[in-house]
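Troubleshooting entry. The earlier prediction with adenosine-5'-diphosphate gave an output that would not parse, so I re-checked the input for stray whitespace and re-submitted. Clean input:
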Amino acid sequence: MMYADDGAQPMAPLLEIENLRVTFDGEDGEVTAVNGVTLSVGQGETVALVGESGCGKSMTALSVLRLVPAPLGAIRGGSVRFAGEELLMKTVEQMQEIRGRDIAMIFQEPMTSLNPVFTCGDQIMEAITRHRVVSKREAREQAVEMLRLVGIPMPERRLYEYPHQLSGGMRQRVMIGMALCCAPKLLIADEPTTALDVTIQAQILDLLRTLKRKIGMAILLITHDLGIVAEVAERVVIMYAGEVVEEAPVRSLFKKPAHPYTRGLLGSVPKLDRKEEELKTIPGNVPSLKSMPSGCRFHPRCPNARSLCAKAAPALLEIGEGQRVACWLYGLPSDREGVETL
Amino acid sequence: MVLYILRRLFQSVWVLVGVTVLVFALVQLIPGGPALMILGEDATAEQITLVNQRLGLDRPLHVQYLDWLGKVVRGDFGVSFQDSRPILPDLLNRMPATLELLVVAMFFSLIIALPIGIISAVKPNSLLDNVGRVLALLGVSMPSFWIGLLLIMVFARNLGWFPAVGRESWTSVIMPAFALGVSMAGILMRMIRSSLLEVLREDYLKTARAKGLTEKVVVLKHAMRNAILPVITTIALQVGNLLGGSVVIETVFAWPGMGRFCYMRMLQRDIPTIMGNLMLYAVFVCILNIVTDLLYAYFDPRIRYSG
Ligand SMILES: Nc1ncnc2c1ncn2[C@@H]1O[C@H](COP(=O)(O)OP(=O)(O)O)[C@@H](O)[C@H]1O
Ligand code: SF4
Ligand SMILES: [Mg+2]
């Protein structure tokens, strides 16, 4: 396993998201899907972005490619820097050059993410010829090579098959092959295994890990499954209701989770060796974006909430080596006003 | 795939058999029957019996039907009541004119409907979308003969750009085809819009954009290739309607096709010719359906590979 060395200098950041805000025009007014998210991914690093469904993970990821679904959704502020360059200032044409070449993305639904009317080969070759000057034959050879790389048997034949002729796992492999054909520096994987069954999940994660070693790209892995995180990520960013609540190296996070929400999430990870133990779940529901709680957005569900928590939102605070948390439990002297439990 | 085509061919045969029954039955419903029509209102009973015997109309219905069917299958549509000439050659001679009209009408309706439909879907509720909405409504609600008369008045009488009637010059087809195509363009435009609007929400377009493809390629290649599928079916249905519309338009523009011929023979109650004409229309629609199915299979690999 490749844990980031806690004592080493931080790797040069490849992707830096700062204070990102994404909003949606809903039927009853504007909602903020991503509220001031800050995170970074180092060169060759694997960062997991974790949170319950609807907390804004996908919108954060799509913002990096500037693919937030317009016109309802829009990036309203903040900064997204890739290799030092501000992506939010790029023209549409410049972004189209970057997509697929420097930053690639794969999605949750392998069944619907490939175009049903084109062969797998055509779709991979299209990604190659979009960014590289190659002949059709070279593109085909490279496509076969990609299919072989992602572990698809008989790649020469699969090239001419349509997505509906492949299983979900095979399609996700094709998606990965297509994403990696231009050797991007960053791969954004938005819940790449959520729609697959458990054995296939493990195979796909394995594949991602192997390819990462071979190609040396960085991965922003989005998931709501902390079990996956422990296996592949070096650093973890936890999101709740559109905000980052904790960020830590994977070892610290599992050893001493700081945020009450993270602790809740860890408590609800099923442990195979402790089947009898009752599964801990976080009481309450994810707040709707329309009626967001004041102060700390987690306070209605938080077992440690104090009166202050409902009044003011805590900012991210460094509490240890690479570990930052947004919670009033940290950084306040305990005799301060409003610290009494609710 | 071969199985798929064979199945469709087999279905078409049954449809055609159904059409022969319908056509035959329709003729039986004519009051007094064909004899009265040939002889006129003041025919005597003996005259009618004689004609019926001569035409074999005194035999039981199913015998008459099978006899007629047997001949039709062999390409013998009989002779006209009007001029006693064999019917089929007269109909086939007029077919190219009608096909020309339909193809050009189709072309007009596609070049109107495709761009407006696509832009309306990409920018819903934009100015062009609303203009398209109004155009579609006009196209559907204005009868094509009325558009035809309007065109004749403005572009033939007043401006003299196109010949008003006939098929003498290559420009002759433009006005009748336009009149015929406009009504179809309205429906087609809205169909393309709604189909594309649906497809634009698909995940695979997110994938296409994430690859770095330009919006033009995303919409025209990745989205349209999928959106066109339901549109193909609509087009096929609409061509059937065009065929009906062509009877009227050919009459208005004195276009020397099957439709006008059929209309004139209808006025003269030339029953065998009308029957032959209806049969040809039915064959045409069946061929069209098979072509549609083939096109559909060509565009949709999920059908092509499922047998
Ligand atoms: N197409 C959309 N229209 C309106 N709101 C949306 C749309 N997509 C996402 N949202 C809003 O953005 C929030 C975050 O969505 P998303 O980033 O997809 O969540 P996640 O990926 O964490 O499950 C959702 O809770 C939803 O309210
Ligand atoms: S700030 Fe308060 S409510 Fe929010 S997580 Fe910390 S203790 Fe819980
Ligand atoms: Mg998501």
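This one parsed fine. Chain A has one domain: 15-112+184-335.
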